[in-house]
Amino acid sequence: MLVASSVIFLVLLLYVMFAGYIPSKKRITSLEAELKQVYAREAALQTRITQQDQRLALRDQQLNALRTEREALSRRVEELEKELQLSAGRRR
To answer: What is the pTM assigned to this prediction?
Structure first.
């Protein structure tokens, strides 16, 4: 009877271990696949962020160039207005 109960206990123990192991293994496999998808999405987002940062830097450079050009044109307009006033004053 002791041997039979030990065998039954061993069978139950193995059943519980493998009954829990197989679903856990499937779950681990599905979680690993999901993790790979998350990493791939994260890499794609990082690429997009890098591209957007590059575009932003380019726009900042263009904006600074336009500001500089606008300031130079503004100074030139002021100089021309002064010249115009001086030449108009000389004609009078």
So the answer is: 0.58
Q: Residues 65, 71, 76, 80: is their CA dihedral positive or negative?
A: positive
Q: State pLDDT tens for residues 37-69.
A: 999 999 999 999 999 999 999 999 999 999 999
Residues in the chain: 92
DSSP 92: -
Q: Residue ranges per domain, the chain? A: 1-92
The Cα–Cα gap between 30 and 50 comes to 30
From 64, 87, 90, 67, select the one nearest 79 (Cα to Cα).
87
Using CA of residue 35, residue 40, residue 43, residue 48, what is the dihedral sign? negative
